């Protein structure tokens, strides 16, 4: 049985790509205020939410169950609006590798999209593929997009 894999989804958004990316690049602590599936976030180690040495602790809901994990930023590519997060601890302990990759894309037709990639390696064959994460990311993206659009209309 295969232990390593990748799951990928791409979702169209109505928020401008720069604004959506900015939330994750410099306002990550606000995600819990925009998305009902994220119950709580806090700094676990470090003082800056966006430094690669900082560890954040997340409490979130997937498939109706509360889960926890820690997260650190592995790589940031502002030019391509791409951030790679390393998840570990808590419910991620069933994986030796669990990377969450966010890419915010400006489309040629003037629209934007969010591409999420989960790169994982299971500790053994008995561990499920993290399919519930794709639904979680899709619904969270919709929540965040809607919230950011509401703020944009108020600013007008």
TrEMBL record:
Gene Ontology BP annotations: defense response
InterPro entries: Bet_v_I/MLP (IPR000916), MLP-like (IPR052006), START-like_dom_sf (IPR023393)
One Pfam family hit: Bet_v_1
Domain Bet v I/Major latex protein: 2-151
Classification via PANTHER family: POLYKETIDE CYCLASE/DEHYDRASE AND LIPID TRANSPORT SUPERFAMILY PROTEIN, POLYKETIDE CYCLASE_DEHYDRASE AND LIPID TRANSPORT SUPERFAMILY PROTEIN
Family: Belongs to the MLP family.
Protein name (database record): Bet v I/Major latex protein domain-containing protein
């Amino acid at each position: 049985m295969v232990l390593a894999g990748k799951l990928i989804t791409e979702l169209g958004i109505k928020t401008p790509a720069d604004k959506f990316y900015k939330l994750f690049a410099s306002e990550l602590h606000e995600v819990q205020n925009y998305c009902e599936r994220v119950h709580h976030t806090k700094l676990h180690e470090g003082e800056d939410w966006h430094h690669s040495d900082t560890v954040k602790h997340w409490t979130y809901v997937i498939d109706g169950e509360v889960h926890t994990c820690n997260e650190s930023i592995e790589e940031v590519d502002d030019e391509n609006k791409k951030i790679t997060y390393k998840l570990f601890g808590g419910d991620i302990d069933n994986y030796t590798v669990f990377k969450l990759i966010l890419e915010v894309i400006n489309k040629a037709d003037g629209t934007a999209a969010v591409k999420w990639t989960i790169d994982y390696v299971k500790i053994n064959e008995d561990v499920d593929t993290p399919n519930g994460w794709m639904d979680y990311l899709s619904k969270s993206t919709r929540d965040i997009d809607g919230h950011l659009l509401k703020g944009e209309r108020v600013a007008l």
